[in-house]
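Progress against Task 2.4 (sequence-to-structure conversion) is shown through the following example record, which the project officer requested during the mid-term review.
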Amino acid sequence: MGHSSNCTNQGTLPTAGRVEPEIPGGANGDCTYSEKRIRVEVTNAPAQRVKTLAHELAHALLHENFKDRALAELEAESTAFIVCNVLVFCV
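C-alpha cells generated for the chain above:
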C-alpha cells in the first residue's frame, strides 16, 4: 500500500526483485517508484498476494505524481477489486 512518488510511468513497469520474508510496517505490499519495484508480502495467502499485486500495479500505472493519497488508494483498491472479480478471486 505504501509507495513513494518518484517512478517513471512511461511504458516501464517496476520489475521483480529479491524475495524478502516480510515487508516492514505490516503492509501487504508497496510500490517504490524510485527503484521501479513492487513488493508483495510472501507470508500472505495466495489470493491476498494476487489482490495486493493488482493493487500495487494500479499504483504503478496510475499514480506517478499523485496529489491525493485517499483518491490514489480508492483507485488502487477499486482496480484490485475489478481485477480479482474478473479472475474469480474472493479476498
